[in-house]
Give the backbone structure.
Amino acid sequence: MRIILFGPPGAGKGTHARILSEKWKIPHLAAGDLLRSHIREATDVGKRAKAILERGELVPDALINELMAEQLEKPAAKRGFILDGYPRTLGQAEALEEVLGRQKERLDSALYFKTSEEVVVERLSGRLVCPQCGANFHIRNIPPKKKGICDRCQGPLVERSDDRPQTVRHRLKVYEKETAPLLEFYRKRGLLREVPGDFDVSELQEELAKVLKGAASPQG
Ligand code: AMP
């Protein structure tokens, strides 16, 4: 199964990608998580990306394309993958087609998490993340078992600096301008599947199971 998840920030891509990845035992490749790990480790890429992420802008296509191609070429991604937050521009979508073309593979589905602005703002304003393992929680909707502590790895939970209201507004504008055109790109290729991003986690998992039934089998 080779799928991409896209939609505005706060649509639930990361949460659902993690669940699907555990269910199907295929890697969850999250562009944002990868960039944040470079920033934590202060690599050259991290140094270039830090200020860009803090402003809520996109890093240059060439940089993220190279990082993601490296992930997609790893043996772990041979059986399939779930791409979360990549591609985010038409240039990235074309670069992804090239990588898959070289591997003689193709995408099974592009899942668009259609989400209302109201829900996005509500989710991002209470989001908590684990910098250690990347798990996501929410103060009200997905509270951790122990306050401020990650259920998965027991690390301390933090708020993301780019979840501040002003940066969120900017990220939404960037999404509309750069990422929304992917809808047409994948619709034309017959790969677009729209899912209701406003649903809560269990409702949307049920919906995803139905939508993905028609795509290749999890082992495919
Ligand atoms: P996310 O965790 O997916 O919300 O991404 C956090 C931030 O990482 C974004 O606001 C961008 O600054 C950067 N980023 C993530 N994915 C991409 C991408 N595909 N292209 C460019 N920048 C990205």
Q: What stands out?
A: The first helix runs from residue 13 to 24. The domain at 2-115+177-212 is CATH 3.40.50.300 (Rossmann fold). The chain has nine helices and seven strands. Residues 1 and 216 are 6 Å apart (CA to CA).
